Amino acid sequence: MERKDYQISFSLKENLSIMMRLLQFAQPYWKVFTLSLIAMAIVSGINAYLPIIVQRYIDQYLVNDVFEVGILVRVLLFYAGLTIAKLALTYIKDYLFKNASEQTVANLRRSIYEHVIHLEMRYFDQTPNGSVVSRVTNDTETIKEFWNVFMQVANGLFNAISIAIAMFTLDVKLALIFMAFLPVVIILMYIYQKKSTVIYGRMREALSKVNTELAESITGMMTIQHFNQTDRKKEEFDDVNQEYVDARIKMFKMDAVLLMPAISFIEVVVLVIILLMFGQEYLSGIAVNVGVLYAFTQYAKQFFNPIGEIMNSLSIFQNGIVSGSRVIHLIDKDDLAPHANPGATGEVAAGKIEITDLTFSYDGENDVLKNINITAEAGETIALVGQTGSGKSSIINLLMRFYEFNRGSIKIDDQSIKEIKDSDLREKMGLVLQDSFMFYGNVRDNITMYGDFTDQEVRKAAEFVNADKIIDNLEDGYQSKVIERGASFSTGEKQLISFARTILRDPTILILDEATANIDTETEMMIQEGLSNMRQGRTTIVIAHRLSTIKEADRIYVLRQGEIIESGTHDELIAQGGMYYDMYELQTTDA
User: What is the pLDDT of residue 521?
Assistant: First the structure.
């Protein structure tokens, strides 16, 4: 399970810091946001002015028993014109803001993905797939709502300011009554922010667990069903799902107390005070401005409703802050995949490999490789054998620069692997794994990996490794559809296509990691012939389980618990009568 090394509670300073980081992704769209805010300010001004139109008509005409159709029509037309303008501007500001926010989130999601695909493999070893998916999908979707909060907050502030100006213009004493309740609202906001951050952090964490559990179950569905684990996995999912539900229920309880109900109560209190003041003036014989009374009853809703909306948006705001912190935490991870040293100019030419005193640890504490020394001359084939966990694949991981190492050295053609350009290293080293991965698309694209290769080159590569015999039997040949992970192809078929993918790039160094494991006998004969062709004129490193497949290797290295304990040719190792001899005898006896 992923380490919970991100926060779920934030100070005001940290909230502002997260917001500023998120706003950086909106920078390309600042003009659109600005136009939306201008439209928003105009709409707020119109909202504040509309009650004044009615107030003046009441106090100047109706109260004085003045009724003229012409005046009424002009007032109505003016009121209707402003209302139509308000509706049009509301549409414009909503469209512009939501369009820009959508683009901003797309920019954020693009940045996250670009960063994720450059992370070191260590991150993916330690982080569940579902957790990574949750960052890129769920958290960014939450941040999308987060931008709507900015619109609501800005709209609420513009409305509150416009209405406050209008109220002070009409009656300073009544306006001060409204202002007197602002500290109460601010205190409510502070309390909500402190409590909601923790609850939303737990809610996002629980949702991440749900995604992780779901992703793991889908990936391992065959194993789950085979070993009758459906009930156990259902119980596990129910547990994490209930944890998420409980977190959301806590959120609902808090929102029900501290959000709109509290604001509505304050609004009612203010209205009662205003009505009492007007009632007292009326009973005292003081003339009451009915238009002002009407305006302030309208302003009570218009002033507190935006504040209520801001309060209501705080729940989304806190959710967005937590999601934003998780996304920023991922973007700030600096354990990127290893790169060549700055200014590296080295290139792979002949393909000579020298590994000297190489020691490596995945976690920084337990060494999985200890003082490894391996040499492969250009064009030679060497093999790595040993029990599971002996360190064979770890050597390949370092040679392919999937992980960084700091103890010992790896040289290719007498130059440090760290001084060879990344592009050249990837192009000149071909890797074939035991489990060949195929992408959604078609067979041709899976061979070319969208590189610039002609159909003739693709076919020639497939023929070279015997993959053409399988591809030609497909209904649509090289254009045959490949579903997710190549599920419609057998392991052997995927392996041959993987060979074609590798050989198409004409690598100088070839690395085969258990390339013939789990293959049926008939397909293995085709694969062995393909491998024989692939090894010609190339430096080849083979990790093999079946020792009969590496008898012709120029040198064989036997590993145990991260150390090389034997090395030599097949005949030399048999003559030594050591671990290799025991492994070979065991396999030949079983055969």
Answer: 58
Distance CA 265, CA 387 (A): 72
Contact status, residue 530 vs residue 466, Cβ threshold 8 Å: yes
Element (H, E) at 385: strand 381-386
What is the token pair recorded at 519?
């293959």
* Helix or strand run (H / E) with residue 526: helix 521-535
**Closest by Cα among 590, 589, 580 to 547:** 580
**pLDDT band of 3, cuts 50, 70, 90:** very low
The residue with tokens 């109220």 is 167
Pair of tokens at residue 31 = 């003009």
- Examine the pLDDT at 509 and tell me if it is beyond 80: yes
> Which tens digits make up the pLDDT trace of 148-158?
777 878 888 88
Q: Report which residue type is found at 471.
A: I
What Cα–Cα distance (Å) separates residue 520 from each residue in 433, 465, 470, 523? 17, 17, 14, 6
Contact 555, 541 (CB under 8 A): no
The three-state secondary structure class of 261 is helix
- 179: nearest Cα among 198, 160, 192: 160
Question: Span 404-414, mean pLDDT?
Answer: 90
Residue 172 pLDDT level (bands cut at 50, 70, 90):
confident
Tokens found for residue 454: 């002609």
Residues contacting residue 270 through CB under 8 Å, at least 6 positions apart: 177, 178, 181, 300, 304
Residue 538, amino acid: R
CA-to-CA distance for 250 and 202, rounded, in angstroms? Answer: 10
Query: CA geometry: angle at 298 spanning 293 and 299, to 5°?
Result: 95
- Give residue 590's pLDDT band: very low, low, confident or very high (50, 70, 90): low
With residues binned 3-state (H G I as helix, E B as strand, rest as coil), the percentages for the chain, rounded to 5, are 65, 10, 25
Residue pair 296/274 in contact by the 8 Å Cβ criterion: yes
Please measure the distance between the N-terminal and C-terminal CA atoms of the chain and give it in whole angstroms.
Answer: 41
- Average pLDDT taken over every residue of the chain: 82
